[in-house]
Design brief:
With 126 residues, the protein is an all-alpha fold. It is built from five helices and no strands. It is globular and about 45 Å long.
Length: 126
């Protein structure tokens, strides 16, 4: 299917742009699906499908998350009054909140793993 192949390519090359484009043309269901998929990829599920070399882990480099694009989708969904849009809004907010919880845990792990380096840096600086 041509549409599926185009979607796979967009996910791989420019997920942020694909989400923005879907939102711009009022394809909010697809925008939310892409956003939720990207958040999952950042967490380590199907990362390669989204062109990510790594996922959110304390021992890996940071992974970019397009929060402003997610916010644009949420704003559009909030303006809608139908039940489907409300459910999509809730689904995306839940995924973003789960991502933020994961991010907090990874940051805590990273701080714990690097505490000796931080202590040594502070010791050497004094």
């Amino acid at each position: 299917d041509l549409r599926q192949n185009q979607l796979k390519l967009c996910k791989l090359v420019n997920t942020e742009g694909a989400i923005r484009l879907c939102a711009q043309y009022d394809s909010l269901q697809l925008a939310v699906n892409l956003a939720i998929g990207y958040i999952g990829a950042v967490a380590g599920r199907e990362s390669r499908d989204f062109g990510l070399e790594n996922s959110l882990q304390s021992n890996m480099p940071p992974v970019y998350v397009p929060y402003t694009v997610f916010d644009q989708v949420l704003t559009q969904l909030k303006q809608k009054t139908d039940k489907s849009s409300a459910e999509l809004y809730k689904d995306l907010v839940d995924q973003i909140n789960s991502h933020l919880e994961l991010l907090e845990r990874v940051c805590e792990d990273n701080t714990f793993l690097n505490r000796d380096k931080i202590g040594l840096f502070l010791y050497l600086k004094v």
